[in-house]
Amino acid sequence: MVQTPSPRRRQKLAELISDDIKRWIATEGMVEGDRLPNERTLMELYGCAKGTVREALKILEVEGLITLKTGPGGGAVLHTPSMEPASRMLRNFLHFQSLDGHQVYQLRRLLEVEMAVSVVGRLGEDDFASLEANMESCECAQPHEEDHRRQRFLELEFHNCLARACPNPLLAFMCRFLNDMLRDLVVVKKAYIPERKQFDEANHRYHRDLVAAFRAEDSERVRTLMSEHMCDAEGHMSALEAEMAGQMLIAPESLSQGSDASPLTQMAQQLR
């Protein structure tokens, strides 16, 4: 039996107005701090009620495009949104897709290399200071669980520092999004347990060599190092996932009865 596609939901008037305002913002080249017309002007322009205008403005506020200020001199002020809300929404979408490290690295092996090459010659002394401070923090990690978790996050932050200097905003977003995905996987799969000295040492070495290549503005060296770094990191991630899967097969009950089990896990145990 052929299934008929479900009808597309008709957009509400407030959604249409918010979309039109976004187009207008882009067309007019408006920037952060600029103000939108007041509610009365928008009501007249769109021939709608105050409630509809307020709903449209609320949509823009939730999307992080404006800040609504009350009182005299208030109104809708343009705000440059951060990438975090968009990244979080995409990660939520993928949360139920059984994503693994290999799938993340299918993209990361390509995009991280191109991003790294794109920032050659664009890093200033402040950027190098941030990268070197990051490496120093990684190398000072202590041999206990919380520091290993922090170290994994610091290693990802090294790559975020590079992405912030990337001249291509889409490429920068994708690289930072993939780093956020890996950060989530680190937490969910406890990728900081057990201690992995070989992985730590490899990351330190690649990061030091990359900084030297960036300082020398050697694009080919940067490309080679980042490509090798991504392949090496994928290998460690795959080994870790296999190890964790083995532990789950051997003793699944131990994963939900530990002292760090979430309240939801504890509740599920009690209901069984």
TrEMBL record:
CDD domains from the xrefs?
Answer: WHTH_GntR (cd07377)
| InterPro entries reported for this sequence | GntR_C (IPR011711), TF_FadR/GntR_C (IPR008920), Tscrpt_reg_HTH_GntR (IPR000524), WH-like_DNA-bd_sf (IPR036388), WH_DNA-bd_sf (IPR036390)
Q: Does the keyword Transcription apply?
A: yes
Name assigned to this protein: DNA-binding transcriptional regulator, FadR family
- Keyword terms of this UniProt record: DNA-binding, Transcription, Transcription regulation
Q: Does the keyword Cytoplasm apply?
A: no
Q: Where is the HTH gntR-type domain?
A: 11-80
Enumerate the GO terms in the molecular function aspect. Answer: DNA binding; DNA-binding transcription factor activity
